[in-house]
Amino acid sequence: MANPPREACGVVGVYTPGEEAARTAFFGLFSLQHRGQESAGIASADGRTIFCRREMGLVSQAFHEFDLDRLPGDMAVGHTRYSTTGASYLDNAQPLEVTGSNGRLALGHNGNVINAVSLRTELEETWGLRFTTATDSEVIAQLLANAPGVTWGERLGYMMRRLQGAYSVVALTPTEMIAFRDPLGVRPLCVGMFRGGWVVASESCALDHIGAKLLRELEPGEAVLIDSEGLHSIHKGNDGRHALCSFEYIYFARPDSILDGKLVHAARREMGRQLAAEHPVNADMVMGIPDSAIAAGTGYAEASGLPYQEGLVKNRYVGRTFIQPDQRLRDLGVRLKFNPLPEVLEGKRVVVVDDSIVRGTTTPHVVNLLRSAGAKEVHLRVCAPPILSPCHFGVDMARKSEMIAANKTVAEVCKFIGADSLGYLSVNGLFKAIGRPHAHSCSACFTGNYPVEVQLEMDKLALERP
Ligand code: AMP
Fold this sequence. Notes:
Blueprint: E1 10-15, H1 22-30, E2 39-45, E3 50-56, H2 59-62, H3 65-69, E4 75-81, E5 96-100, E6 103-113, H4 116-126, H5 136-146, H6 152-162, E7 165-172, E8 177-181, E9 190-194, E10 197-201, H7 204-209, E11 213-217, E12 222-227, E13 230-236, E14 244-245, H8 246-252, E15 258-259, E16 262-263, H9 264-278, E17 285-288, H10 294-304, E18 312-314, H11 327-332, E19 338-340, H12 342-345, E20 349-354, H13 362-372, E21 377-382, H14 404-407, H15 410-417, E22 421-424, H16 427-434, E23 441-442, H17 444-447
Parallel strand pairs: 14-23, 17-20, 20-21, 21-22
Antiparallel strand pairs: 1-4, 1-10, 2-3, 2-4, 5-6, 6-7, 7-8, 8-12, 9-10, 9-11, 12-13, 15-16, 18-19
Helix pairs in contact: 4-5, 9-10, 9-16
């Protein structure tokens, strides 16, 4: 049956008055591919009805030229879905389509609703609604499609009072596009202008690629409505709190995106500088693990005065695709992804900067690969502080029992991964690098302090149980 609700995804919404929007949404989705590789979907609206296509795989695998021709209209929303394990299910691909007392909607969601199980039961029992997927996103869609209220602003207000957790959403009716962000602003969402139209996207890099200008990021708890009259802010539901995910800066977002006014690349570079200050070491060179730790690697090199060198070349086309490698290939592990440069590494004491260690599966292989290419010493420096607690707000991060830092000391982790030394960035150092207050960020994976009390250890199959 259907798959876990816990995922980080990419969403995009496009309004191009008088022009077909699906093609632009396609290119927007393309630039959000890093946020999800399991499935892709686009829904369009032509003023009368909604059209939708969802497929498994990468955006380029899910859509061909003729598929876009079947998505008419000047409004479109798109979604890329991320999932970490096991088989993939088309049922859970988005945009989702639902019909309720407020009409028909197509909706794409990034985040995770922590009270989805109880809300779903309530909607089934008291509103008589029927659910067709096992996702928290359908709870959002049904709630919005059936919420009391005359205006979308009133319905969104009701919906936001009921939902708990993380949700950045783009939704489409036959005539309007609605985008909203949860009151804590956990996942990003920004809006831009585009040749007389509008674009909403998880990250600003999607706007850049389609030639849109970033106007601003949606405020936590804000909803905007876009129609033929333009863009209107129709709901403000923030109580002064903000809990933007700090892992977006470390790993998820693209370096060329701007999150809460800060370029991710600049934040990562600063993480590297902080790491150099917190964990200096005598070495010959610094390298960042491509792609997510390159900026941090250059920051470490700048601050330490050590030369930056490229020690690993990444095959950029080995991502998470729907093709599951067979066991023989799986055993090759990181070899499929990285190729070391012995000419660079031979005889060197190497500082290796990586973004994060979660289970500790990848890093020992990387250390091994560098040693086999001749590195004399390998000193690992990690941008994320030790990851100790699971994420309930949209990043699939493994269970606590699987997290290596939750179960071993730093010295034990160092031994396990086979490095000569290991240094994690401190939580303070991280927020110094990001340049925004810790109090306005979610750091639950490092501190265990969740921005909303998490009642239960939500497991992946929570919505699948009868
Ligand atoms: P692990 O092998 O479990 O320690 O995973 C660590 C590596 O996976 C990191 O170096 C990241 O590049 C990547 N990573 C971190 N978080 C995630 C995530 N939520 N989903 C997929 N990959 C991740």
